[in-house]
Structure formats: C-alpha cells, structure tokens
Design a protein that fits this description.
By secondary structure, this protein is of the alpha+beta class. The protein has two domains: 111 residues, Rieske Iron-sulfur Protein, CATH 2.102.10; 210 residues, Naphthalene 1,2-dioxygenase Alpha Subunit, Chain A, domain 1, CATH 3.90.380. Helix content is 23%, strand content 30%.
C-alpha cells in the first residue's frame, strides 16, 4: 500500500518534556530531524545531518545554542546556518542545512515539514480546551513508537466498532459495534458520532462509577495532518442530575515517522475528581492498556500486509466510510502539493 501524507501541515515532533538541553533525534515523514532547546528555552529543529559528510549531528554536542558536529567540528545554529568551520574563515553558503518551523503548545512541540513560507502559526492544532484547561485533569500524553503506517492509526480511531472486541477488558462494550455511527465528511475534517441510549458500562466505567447501565455518546474527529480528538459523555440510564454527567476527552495526534512507522501521542482527560491521584492513575493505566492493544493489532496488520503483498483482496465495510474518507483526504492533499 502506498501511503500519502501532506507535508504542509503541523505535526507533533515530540512532547515538550522530551526536548531539553540535549540533542533529540527523530525521523518525521522520512526526514532526519534534530530537536533541542536554546538557552532562552525556545525549541530549534534542524536537519540531523552535517553538510560536510552527512554524519548525524545528534552524535555531536550542544555548545551554547549551536550544535557541533561530532566528526569534524562544524557548528550550526538553530536556523540551520553553519557558523563555524575549524581552521577556515570562509563559510560557503551551501554549508547551511535545513531548519524547520516549530511551535510549542499544550505540551506538544509541533513541526512544519512542508514549505517554510507556508507555515502559519494560526493553523497549529488547538487542544487547549483539554490539555491546558483547569476544567480537565489527566496524565500528559507519552510518545509511543508504532511499527505500522500512521494511516492505520487514523483508521483505527475513526472506526471504534473495534472496541467491542479489542478492548472488551478496558473500555469496550458489545453495544458499540452494534450501533451504526453517523458520519460527517467535510473538506477539512471527518467526524464519527454514536449515541448509545442504553448499554452496559465498560469495565473502566464500572470501576470508576459503579454504574452498570449507561447512556453513552462518542464523537471522534480527524483533521490533517494526523490530528484526532475523541469526546465522550457518559451518565446512568434515566439520569436527570447534571452533576452525574461525566465528560472524558482523548487527544491523540499521530505523526508519520516513515511510510510504515509512526509516533502516537495519546492521553485521556476527565472533568470529574480533578484532584484524585488514584483516579488519574486508574484512567492512565487502563487507557495505556487500550493503546498497547491497538499497537499489537496495527503492527500485526502491517506485518501481514507486507507478507501477503499488494495483490491480496481486502474488503471494506459500512463502518469504513469515515476511514476511507480520511485516506482520500490525505491523498488529495498530498497530490495537490506535488502538483
């Protein structure tokens, strides 16, 4: 399968806590990137290659705000300019390397891998309603490498019918797969919604609330490059007390590493028991289990896809309407950039 991803989008390069006064190497859309913080705390992202002999700059050292190559000592600043060549006064213009626009928001470090002149800070995805709001609590996202295409993750989240089977011990119930979703497809996003008027509570909800039958709504939105947001509302069946309505939010941006691997940045937040560390730990533990269950399935899918070859027939189901729309949206954006 050929995977298409647009480059003129903001993608998460790392979590904020991962980037410090160290050299963090990461591959983003098949490109070698080096991340670090300048002395003033701002984040720099440059090509992880020395222009001299293409050695990875991540093997070097940070000298002030400059990266010194560990091979021949050339130094580069956070804008990609070569600022020093040992024993040589003249620095040729071609010694410079690529620098990437970056933005830091909501605990994420965002990178723009496309045309630099098109990078627009107003387009940085906004998860502040959850990640930076006192109304919600939760453990921050972690960086999970997955040996499968980023597209597999996007399709996985847009078709939550799988939670009835893959996550039956954590967040799944049989009623999810049996409830036909409502799908909205626009030029800028794809959204899937389900309302379960009466369903069994998942193991997680029984553990948190001691509820056994619930009214449950889901709203999952995807928008390019790899942004995912899941809104969940849950309450006891027949509830008339607004204080018993619980809201959970999942933020889940994902970033292509290569054509067949990606990084997943996911966390679940809540609007109840905000100061309860045990609730935070329980939700984080159970949510992490679901993420690892998805990782196993996606990586198995990729191994089988590679082993079986392109000629193997694969069918689509009614629940694939949203995943197919997302795939089409990414392909069209990528093709438009190439043209």
């Amino acid at each position: 399968m050929t995977t298409h991803y647009p480059r003129n989008c903001w993608y998460v390069a790392a979590m904020s806590h991962e980037v410090g006064r160290n050299l963090l190497d990461r591959t983003i859309l098949n490109e070698p990137v080096l991340l670090y913080r300048r002395e003033d705390g701002s984040v720099a992202a440059i090509e992880n290659r020395c222009s001299h002999r293409r050695v990875s700059l991540s093997l070097g050292t940070l000298v002030g705000d400059h990266v010194q190559c560990g091979y021949h000592g050339l130094r580069f600043d956070g804008d990609g300019a070569c600022v020093r060549i040992p024993a040589q006064d003249r620095i040729p213009p071609q010694a410079c390397i690529r620098a990437y626009p970056v933005a830091e928001r909501d605990g994420f470090v965002w990178i723009w891998p496309g045309q630099r002149g098109l990078a627009d800070l107003s387009l940085v995805p906004d998860f502040s309603e959850v990640c930076s709001s006192p109304r919600f609590a939760g453990r921050r996202a972690s960086t999970l490498p997955v040996q499968a295409p980023c597209l597999f993750n996007i399709e996985n989240v847009l078709d939550l019918s799988h939670v009835s089977y893959a996550h039956e011990k954590t967040v799944g119930t049989p009623e999810v797969a049996e409830t036909r979703p409502e799908t909205e497809i626009t030029d800028t996003y794809v959204e899937v919604r389900r309302t379960l008027e009466r369903s069994g509570a998942s193991p997680l909800y029984r553990r948190l609330f001691d509820w056994h039958e619930v009214r449950h709504t889901q709203s999952i939105r995807f928008w390019p490059g790899g942004n995912v947001r899941l809104n969940i509302t849950i309450e006891p069946v027949g509830n008339t007390d607004l204080s018993q309505v619980r809201h959970l939010r999942v933020v889940g941006p994902c970033t292509p590493e290569t054509d067949v691997t990606h990084f997943k940045f996911s966390a679940m937040y809540r609007d109840f028991a905000l100061d309860d560390v045990e609730v935070t730990a329980t939700i984080a533990e159970q949510f992490h289990k679901t993420i690892l269950e998805d990782k196993v399935l996606m990586e198995d899918q990729q191994r089988n896809w590679h082993a079986d070859g392109d000629g193997v027939r694969m069918i689509d189901l009614a629940v694939d309407r949203a995943p197919l729309a997302a795939r089409r949206m990414l392909r069209q954006l990528a093709e438009a950039e190439r043209q």
